[in-house]
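Model the whole thing, not chain by chain.
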Amino acid sequence: MPDAALRAAHRVVVLTGAGVSAESGIATFRDAQTGLWERFAAEDLATPRAFLRDPALVWGWYEWRRMQVLRAQPNPAHRAIAALERRVPALTVVTQNVDDLHERAGSAAVVHLHGSLHAPRCFDCASPFALPPDPPCEPEGGRRLAPPRCARCGGAVRPGVVWFGESLPADAWREAGQAASDCELLLAVGTSGLVHPAASLPALARRHGATVVLINPVPTALDAVAQHVLRGKAGELLPALLETAFG
Ligand code: BV8
Ligand code: ZN
């Protein structure tokens, strides 16, 4: 059972996707877009080509998402994962998310496979760009917003995320692959398992003998890889799992 496997594990990996932030009010990646971006699929905006074609549309989308994150709070799922880090000998959070809710909930070891909304950089020379504290977008569907310019070379500033067609940060991917290969338990929470190479981590862990546990309200491509599937919301099932496992 998942609680017994959690108690017995020395090294645990928690792989999270957009679903872990859903109960903080942050739309998952596949939820229908709203407002200005209603007619776009997220995959069509999260690419270098989309940014080059219409920088203000893409920068406005990311600033609106960053504003959502600034106004959001970690939910019981983030807090349970941070609490779990204090109950097992070694725990690594490997997240596909670009928000900082794991860190704000107290998780110390967080690997960001797809970058962060909080680390924009120059599209041309990659110089980091310091963001103003409060983005100027309205709370609802946001609006176009011309990206700021790099002080060093005048290039357009882009979000610090990994777009489709871009490679994952080499060190993050190496650390995630090592953690998944070494762990006794991999818990995949709130991910559709559609985006690669992140989606290959549960199978990698399983091949190395780990127990794989999923938490998701609906079936996903990862169900076939897991020994245990907990059907439901992360904000409810993670606290319950910790309670059953550790009292
Ligand atoms: C790369 C940052 C190569 C940006 C993101 C065909 C086959 C295999 C791969 C490919 C292929 N065609 C193209 C590819 C490669 C492509 C890819 O995987 N495409 C997919 C669409 C098929 N991958 C890439 O391009 C990657 N790079 O492969 O590089 C390369 C190699 C060498 C040289 C050059 C290039 C880069 C991928 C990274 C893309 N960037 N994010 C941004 O955020 O804007 S990915 C983005 O989508 C999110 O970050 C997130 O990771 C992902 C969405 O996935 P989820 O997190 O799972 O979110 P989703 O909404 O899908 O699902 C939410 C889940 O939560 C659902 O299951 C839902 O049921 C559940 N849920 C809801 N509520 C709750 C809940 N669960 C629990 N509790 C709840 N309350
Ligand atoms: Zn520059």
